[in-house]
Design goal:
By secondary structure, the protein is mainly beta. The chain is built from one helix and seven strands, in the order αβββββββ. The chain has one domain.
Length: 114
């Protein structure tokens, strides 16, 4: 019985983590939630639970290929994969999460942002 108590949480954590693709570089659709449409394609780099999204062509105020967004990939209770941005709070030596998170759909290969 003790063996099952140990294995069950391990299985759940592996099953959840397994949905993030292997570390590598991918091409995803760049989607805008305000327009509810995918407008461009962008390059995405994933390393374990970290992600870097590079700007596609056609965005204003940023050149194609520049770093558009980066953060940590976490799964929300809704099962949606969110990209959380961290900022170190030097006064309290802790990390705080801020901004409206972007999200990513690994099955449809779509990156969504506001």
């Amino acid at each position: 019985m003790k063996f099952l108590i140990f294995i069950y949480p391990l299985f759940i954590s592996i099953a959840t983590f397994a949905q993030i693709p292997k570390s590598g570089t991918y091409i995803y659709k760049f989607c805008d939630a305000e327009y509810n449409a995918c407008l461009h394609k962008c390059k995405i780099k994933i390393k374990e639970n970290k992600i870097w999204v590079y700007a596609p062509a056609g965005l204003s105020h940023i050149k194609e290929g520049e770093l558009f967004e980066s953060g940590t990939i976490v799964q929300a209770p809704s099962k949606k994969w969110l990209i959380l941005h961290t900022k170190t709070n030097k006064a309290h030596n802790s990390k705080i999460y801020y901004d409206q998170p972007s999200w990513i759909d690994f099955k449809k290969k779509q990156f969504w942002q506001f």
